[in-house]
Amino acid sequence: MAISVVMPALEMAQETGKLLAWRKKEGERVTKGEPLLEIETDKAVVEIEAPADGILAGVRSEVGAVVPVGETIAWIVAPGEKPPVASGATIPTGRTKTEAAKPAAAAAPATESTASANMSISPKARRLAKELAVDIAQIRGTGPDGAITSEDVQAAKASPQVAAQPSAGAAPSGKLSAIARLMAERTAKSWTTVPHFFVVRDADARKLLELQKKLKAKHKGPQGAAPSFTDCLVSLIAQVLERHPAMNSSWVDETIRQNPAINMSLAIAVPDGVVAPVIHNANKATLTEIAEQRAALAERARAGRLVPADLSAGTFTISNLGMFKVDSFTAIITPPQAAILAVGAVADRVVAVGGKPAVRPMMTLSLSSDHRVVDGARSAAFLNDVVEAIRAPQELLFR
Fold it and tell me: Which among 244, 269, 296, 314 has most CB atoms closer than 10 A?
């Protein structure tokens, strides 16, 4: 019996998906669970596995096609079996099926295209797009699950996209990977639309380092995952966020949304850029659970095998460049999150302790915050509690 391969729903509000690559050719044998195709989301490129054993047949969507969620794009059949007759034309590259069916003369204006209608967009943002004559089909949303917000529309109006075709005689340039392109688009949009401000503190990491070394020597998880310094930071910061719910909020359509869960996004470098998989309910997880989740997420990220659940619902981000010997840096917020914490390297410094010079392992923390969600006083209070938690970690890690 033929098994359909459909465009999966990778995010809650998703209505379409872009097909980036087929891992198998039509007529080739596939095995259930092996990589079959790649789909682009607003957060990353996701690998989709084959739903059954058999032969790939009846491929209806080409690479680059934008396909409605749930629509059949191919079939997996038994040897000698023919795929069911396709109902409807194959979706052409870069268009939805409905768009392809429209004659060119009857095409709607860009701001009213069918592709735009299928996108997740707030009513206010849609009205604003009409007023500003902005093509929302060209906008990547920064709201929950990729929804387009009014800020996205304003940013698109302020920074119109340049045509993709190079001018005659222009030298060819390096082509960005899908992950690198998504990262470039989202960081540029965040930097130009989110009012960032920064708070910086130094923290004495001596007690946390000592504790982490003891934990590493004492405990090994089922898969050999022992708590790392980053794991300890994830746990501490997640618990501090319980006291500061404003820092765990989101800016959505000119309103502040309180997030009920504390889901920690962790920036991880991959060959093509940076991804931020999520440790869900980090404030409720044990250190061992955090260590195991972080190790598994990092492995899947570097192998390019993150699944949609790995990237969804993050509410706060940690970016740690300490392993690269970076003393300090400031990071760009991932909308709709309200903040991101940049963590520098731990290094011995001479500091005043009790009025006398002493050498301590110090680290610099830089908090980037969205001024629409939190003010300077709230950010400073949160960062102060993080510094205190690092200075005396036992009070939170073993509460």
Answer: 314
